[in-house]
Amino acid sequence: METFATLLDGLATTQSRNRKVALLGRYFRATSDPDRGWALAALTDGLPVRVPLRRMLADLMLRVIDPVLYKMSRDYVGDTAETVALLWPDTAAPRATGDTPTLDAVVMAMSIGTIAERTEALRTFLDALNPSGRWALLKLIGGAPRVGVSARLARTALAESYGRDVGEIEEIWHALDAPYEALFRWLDGVADRPDPGLRPTFRPVMLAHPIEDDDWPKLSAADFAAEWKWDGIRVQIAARGGEVRMFSRQGDDISAAFPEIRSAFMAANCVADGELLVMRAGNTIAPFNDLQQRLNRKTVTAKMMRDYPAHVRLYDLLFEGGEDLRASPFIVRRQRLEAWHAHNHPPLSDLSDLVAFETFNALSALWSQARDDGIEGLMLKRRDSAYQAGRVRGQWFKWKRAALTLDCVLMYAQRGSGKRSSFYSDYTFGVWRTKPDGGPNAGDELVPVGKAYSGFTDDELRQLDKWVRTNTTESFGPVRAVTPGLVFEVAFDAVQRSARHKSGVAMRFPRIHRIRWDKPATEADRLETILALITPISQPVA
Amino acid sequence: MTHAVDRWLYPTDQGLYCAPGGFYIDPHRPVDRAIITHGHGDHARSGHGAVLATAGTVEIMKVRYGADCAGSFQSLAVGDALTLNGVGVSLAPAGHILGSAQIILDYGGKRAVVSGDYKRASDPTCAPFEVVACDVFVTEATFALPVFRHEIAAGEIAKLLASLATEPTRTHLVGAYGLGKCQRVIKLLRQAGYDRPIYLHGAMVALTGLYQRLGVDLGDVRPVAGNDAKDMAGGIVLCPPSALGDRWSRRFGDPVNAFASGWMRIRGRARQRGVELPLVISDHADWPELIETIVATGAEEIWVTHGREDALVYHLASLGRKARALALVGRDEEAE
Lengths: 542, 336
Fold this sequence. Notes:
The complex is a heterodimer of chains A (about 550) and B (about 325).
Chain A: H1 2-13, H2 17-30, H3 35-43, H4 53-64, H5 67-77, H6 80-87, H7 103-111, H8 115-127, H9 131-142, H10 151-161, H11 166-173, H12 181-187, E1 206-207, E2 209-210, E3 224-230, E4 233-240, E5 243-248, H13 259-264, E6 270-280, E7 284-285, H14 288-292, H15 302-307, E8 310-320, E9 323-324, H16 330-344, E10 349-351, E11 354-355, H17 360-369, E12 375-382, E13 390-391, E14 396-400, E15 404-415, E16 424-434, E17 444-452, H18 458-470, E18 472-476, E19 479-482, E20 487-492, E21 494-497, E22 505-508, E23 511-516, H19 527-531
Parallel strand pairs in A: 1-13, 2-14, 8-10
Antiparallel strand pairs in A: 3-11, 3-12, 4-5, 4-6, 6-7, 6-8, 8-9, 12-14, 15-16, 15-19, 15-20, 16-17, 18-19, 20-23, 21-22
Chain B: H1 5-8, E1 9-11, E2 16-18, E3 23-25, E4 33-35, E5 48-53, H2 55-65, E6 70-75, E7 81-84, E8 87-93, E9 101-107, E10 110-114, E11 136-141, H3 153-166, E12 172-175, H4 181-191, E13 198-200, H5 202-213, E14 221-223, H6 229-232, E15 236-239, E16 256-260, H7 267-272, E17 277-279, H8 287-297, E18 301-307, H9 309-318, E19 322-325
Parallel strand pairs in B: 3-4, 4-5, 5-6, 10-11, 11-18, 12-15, 12-16, 13-14, 13-15, 16-17, 18-19
Antiparallel strand pairs in B: 1-2, 2-3, 7-8, 8-9, 9-10
């Protein structure tokens, strides 16, 4: 448990991704089975341990501390696991290294016996550990250690430390169970890669490059097929033997929050690539904001499913039955997809139509007109492209419609994190509106419309930081309010209504396009201009 | 004749006042006569008429505020006693920082001890705390929650040295309170065998120099100013906590940010400040030390000043002690 505790401490205090990867790699290589597998589970899908931890701890803490002092401590620290870790009495003699429980011993003890027996086992573990070990123990059992490591980062670190591509792990990941001994045997080079068998698993997705101006002369229209680029999230549906999983682009299983999609594909045997959307009656695609209501949830209510109906728009077929289509040309896979869909027509799905065009000029005309119905732009896919993992050069391009831009005034600046912690690098900006409560001479005020922390160079960041420091009017912790004197030309993909912002609008993907050192703040844009750009809203069906 | 202590020692707008003696203890506004427990800014302020303190505290005040920061100074050695308007005044070490002392007041047959800030853990830069039996004990409560149990400082220094060994190219910036903590950390590093130059933020140079003049051997310490960042790479630099992650620190490239403070016991505190290497080193008593000390004084009454008074008052009451919070304005509980 000490090495796991040291790992968690290191991950929690290290901000650099590369250092986190190095810490994880060192841990996986230095730790034996099954402990390293339990650690991997704790950082990814969680341990298969279900105990009423809160109740067990409440019971144990009553024995060691006055309940009033416990409550005061809990209120101050703000986290039960940490409070218990700090309050638990230290045993008189510090234990020798190696004398603390293994992760495996903890998992076993928490998996069997009555609650009273497990509580007793937990007590002996707490007794055997120091504060950092106790914290790690409780985070291991309780799940979600929140040490700044995503499941994907943990898998990436694992792959990198064994000189493998993360895709090789992702492909089989969802067919594996903690403590992943077969996976580690393969990584150690003493066994073949585990066979996913009949279970649906994730296949690393193929990604597109943004198209650049100098790409066009090298491309021939006849080599490419075009599709609309939909404003949802990329998903992969893997269905086999009555089991259906929906994965995000990063390989996270998000199916639990979309039971209707699972039902829709229950009879299928395929791996398909598509866009997850919220779609209302009459095939209207709802704004991205609606889809967001359904994301990052472990479960879903019937009301959410009614208000934000999910839909999958398919554009590629990787497997049909047991047949791997990924080496086939795109256009062949497309025919297979159309035939398969026509035959099986799973509910809550349709196909993303191919956009017919003769020349890039003709396509460009279509592209420039597209600014509604959840369309983000166009996708160009080479007709003969095989389905390959990652961003393969020259095969697929995304051609996002031109960003909208507005001139906004810097209002607040916040300190960044990591390497940017000494810089005011996160900027909240606003536009002018007439003060709402005043008469005809009420004057103007700024209302915030967005926040951006990218789109400028390191040199510009230094200048911006300096400007913020010399134009500060008020400080609130890491945030400074500044005089309205600096204009940003802000680029963004769309504007939506938002009840969360005072201005009533929210920008999608805002970034600093240009810093207008030259422009007087009074000449920045007004709220009316933004309101006119709003993507038409669709109301949830009551 | 005996008087209840709170008839002759009580808080006022200026600070804790001893009425028959006509003096204040650690007043936060300028007064005619002040007795100062130690040199931290929230206890020792400039502008008083007459100041009585240990020689160390007087020197610290002169370095911080200038030689004429009070009308007159009188130093009193630990163990010596004098009488001010019938009030017996003597000092005992508080173990907090160099020069820190508890103020012992005898009047009307009762004894009150104002401890200022104190700790019980060993500190090579100051004399250890002495328990003084008394009727009323005035205690701090900075870390008065049972979650605060400080680590042994030498172990935390070992963590710092281990980090230097694993990250030998990154400068280790150690945020530390400029008076007391800074010099203690340097001394502990020397005791652990670290003999390379240690670099100081400008705000720490004068007080560290004073410690050395007063006989605390801190080895080779140099101001950061005038040194090339390349020469300090992989070394130890001490700075005020506020300089961590501020513009000043940019010269060090990609430093390891460490912070030596009792607050580092709480993960959220380290996270908030972006601290990569939290070092739980404190100059204040932790929860067990507070309880042990208070009980050892045998005081009938305990007055609790700045910090988390509620938990300490509650707990002392459950131990059968009369305890109450003493509202003193102007104390800076966060700085450590």
